[in-house]
Amino acid sequence: MKSFRTRTMIHASPDAIWSALTDAADYPRWNPTVTKVEGDIVSGGTIKVFATISPDRAFPVKVSRFEPGRVMEWSSGMPLGLFKGVRTFTITPEGEGVAFEMEEVFSGLLEPLIGRTIPDLQPEFEKFAAALKAEVEG
Question: Rounded to the nearest 5 degrees, what angle is found at the Cα of 114, between the Cα atoms of 33 and 85?
Answer without folding.
Answer: 55
